[in-house]
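A reminder before we start the practical. When you read a complex entry, don't treat the lines as separate problems. The point of joint prediction is that each chain is placed relative to the others, so the output describes one connected object in space. Small molecules and nucleic acid strands, if listed, are placed in the same frame. In the example below there are two entries. Take a minute to note the order of the lines before looking further.
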Amino acid sequence: MKGKDVAAPGKAIDPISQFELIPIIPIRIGGLDLSFTNASLWMVIVLLLALGLMVYGTRNRSLVPDRLQSAAEMMYEFVASTVRGSAGNEGMRFFPFVFALFLFVLFSNLAGLIPYSFTVTSQIVVTFAFAAMIISTVLIYGFYKNGMHFLHLFVPSGLHPVLTVFVTFIEVISFLSRPISLSVRLFANMLAGHITLKVFGAFVTMLLGAGAWAALSPLPLLGVVAIYALELLVALLQAYVFAILTCVYLNDAIHPGH
Amino acid sequence: MTNSDGGKDDDKALKARLERLSSALEDRKGRPEANGNDVDVSASSTGRALSLGMRVLSEFTAGVIAGAGIGWILDKLLSTSPAFLIVFIGLGTATGFWNVYRMAVGSTGARKTGSK
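Here is the predicted structure of the whole assembly.
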């Protein structure tokens, strides 16, 4: 609709429609819309991809691994060393949790880079659900393991009493800001990257349809290629950052005293 | 005879080469371990800087947003319209700086020794 006042013929830049939820199988239970959407479809695909790599990759358990097996082993060792490095050996009881999160985020970031696919992690509902799950795990396990001693996380030691009250306030707000920063970081990275890709892609078609300006169209095309490479890097890095921050927060639940 | 002599020379050369290779390998291995307790493991420094920048940005804004949210909720509950919002936005900004400061301290490895 807005495209009418854009000079170039053809489609106008429409970078947002790729994030639209489209119900595939409409399901309504009570007043709730529980439809099976394209997001649900891609969640299932991502789950199958991750499961396929791990199960099919480790089917032989050979001493000399083939390609898939070494990919699966590398991922396992990478996450295991991350967990051990930032949450200690006690943190290894959370290894399945972190590994599952890492695999899901990684595969949905990567699957989102396939043209015409849907990026599950570009929905803030999904990332915030993960962050809320992580923070409630930290809270529940922290209180279960340490009891009221867990609250020492918020109270610094060795400060002037007035300053202690102030810093305690700040620490509480800081703890509450964790799920926000965790979810917004992943969501914003994915959203911004995909919008940039779409806008640059639209530049190419707009320039091609603009007469002599078509000579400039390879420039945004090169831009698309460069941004795609960058997005690949961002997809891997954000999955890693998500996993390592989960470990850091879980470390607070295991060892609350600073 | 000449064959065995040549073999000895080859052995020596091979040993020297192996040593050189293994020392080069140690060097390669040692380097990432020396600064390996960094937050990132990315291939290029651009990606590392990019993700660090995104982390700083999100930690800071999350602090402000969390503070503003708490203030807004308190105002709603106690109907003291702007008072708590103003106070907690200030506290939230302080939290944002605190988050960033802690990140900067943590990435040099001070946090790891501090938490143990």
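Discuss with your neighbour: The mean pLDDT of chain B is 74. What might explain this?
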